[in-house]
Every structure is written in structure tokens, then in C-alpha cells.
Amino acid sequence: MTKRTRTLHALGTRINLTVFGEQDDAALEAAAVLIQKEEDRLTVNRPQSEVMAVNHAAGEKAVAVSSATYDLIDQAVAASRENFGFNALIGPLVKRWQIGFAGAHVPAPDEIAEGLALSHPDGVQLDGAAQTVRLNTAGMELDLGGIAKGFIADQIKVLWQAYGVSAGIIDLGGNLLTVGRSPRREDGQWVIGVQDPGRARSVDLGTTILPACSAVTSGIYERFLVKNGVKYHHLLDPRTGWPLQTDLAGVTVFTATSIQGELEAKRLFFAGHAPADWLADPTHLGAVFAYQDGRSEALGLTLAR
Questions:
Q1: In this structure, what are the phi and psi dihedrals at residue 247, rounded to the nearest 5 degrees?
Q2: Dmax over Cα atoms in the chain, in whole Å?
Q3: pTM of the model
Q4: Residue 76 lies in a domain
Q5: What residue numbers bound the domain in which 257 lies?
Q6: Which of 6, 200, 203, 299 lies most in the core, judged by the most C-beta atoms within 10 Å?
Q7: Which domain of life is it from (predicted)?
Q8: DSSP line for 67-80
Q9: Each residue of 174-209: pLDDT tens digit?
Q10: Residue 73 lies in a domain
Q11: Nearest CA to 157 among 145, 172, 173?
């Protein structure tokens, strides 16, 4: 079966799009356009975007955004208010640590307290009728980076279905979404690798076989700061302002949708385990927990070494 690919750099990462059985690149090109348009709307890495308009007006006024942006912000704020670890308002705290960027350092306690005060999701006012977003305090920042890739991947899947794509792979820098039936197996299932947190990118702990689904990983193995012999990773706990204390190196979750995977990967990582009823949800297909001491365990699926 014909395989077509498109590689681009967007959303701060290398993106690989693959379709099988297509006679032209129309579906790939349409997906690339969608990615660029979504980045233009949602980025916080440029002075201008819909999200940055909200941030620039923090403490001053509510800002009207497009319906799609509003819906995503609504989901992100609702998840942040669950207080399980994901927080779309954590930007001010991240900036005080700067882990993974020039100027990374361990903030003083008063800096952490200031960052925490500006990172509380209750400081967001949402008006669904007017589709406006207001950040109540100057210095607050909204950042959808922890959920946007999943949102965009799910949109690409819908787009490809409209194009009649029967099989494809959406890889947004490690956020993976498979579409349709795999052409490489008679049963149509996909062979998906799980990253080994202790080794280089694309070196797997093992592989699992699943129907079309999303695979998303949260982990501490790529960005960190070492200060006075102490290693500080970049996943800050919005409840304390400090890097999360955990035995885990990474958690990979397999879910029906990619936006769901973004949230569930963080939920399980911050909890350190899956809730007893996690697999009772039919959209939760399984998870793999990788520990800092090299151990790993699979939940709800088989991991072939």
C-alpha cells in the first residue's frame, strides 16, 4: 500500500504525518495548514495570538476569542480546577524556574510563593455567552501547551476522515494518534512503541498492539536542572511550586482521543498510579509506568520487550 509522509517543524517540535493508500498529498497538506493555523491562534511563544491577547489584558479586561479557542480554554481551565497536576495557568511559576531554558535556577521561597499566587485557575473568568476570557490579576498567564497538541491531533483525525483516509499516523513530537486500520497487520491493529525514559529518543521499553488510539507520555527525563548536586526536573507541582516528588520517570497512556491522553497522562503521573476504576472507562485502553530505577509495569495491556 502506498505510503505518503509530510514532515514539518511546528508547535515547538518535529512533526511527522503519514497516510497510507492515498494517491496524492492533499490530506497531508491540509493537515499542515491546519497545524499552522492552530499554532497561530494558540501559541504563547510569539507576541500576537488569541491566547496572548488574553495574557496581555490580564488584570485589565475580558477578551473575546474564537469559539474553538474558547472551548479549548474552557476544557483546560476545568481540568486545572480539578487540581490533579495539570494547570494551564502555571506559566508564571515556570518562568521563575526556567528549567530547560537559559537562566534556569532554583527560585527563592518568595519567588515561588509569588508564582503560585499567579497560577491559580480560580483567577480565570469565563463567559460562554460572550466567549470572553479574563485573567483577574496582572501577571497571570494562560498557556495551553499541555493540552494543545492533543486538541490539534484530534482535529487532524477528523480532517483526514473527511478526506476518506483509511489509515494514518499523526506524530506531533511524541504525541501519537493512529487513524483507521493499520495496513501492516491483517487484524488492522497498530504496533506502538513505548519510550524508554532512560535512553535516547525512539529507544523503546517495548511495544504493544492496539486498535487505532492515542499514545501520550508525561515524563521528567528530557528537561531538568542540576544545582549543587540536586536534580530538579521540569514538571512542577502546581500545589507546591516545586518539581513533583516521584519515583516515576514517565507514564504513557493509551486513550481513545489525544486530548484525553494529554490529561490522563498527567493525572496518572502526578498520582503515581492509576485509580482503581481507571480501566473501567472504555476509552482508557491502558498505561505503562516507567520508574527512575529502571523498573516498568503495564496496566491493561501487554508490553513486548
A1: -90, -10
A2: 60
A3: 0.95
A4: yes
A5: 3-32+165-299
A6: 299
A7: Bacteria
A8: HHHHHHHHHHHHHH
A9: 799 999 999 999 999 999 999 888 777 778 999 999
A10: yes
A11: 172
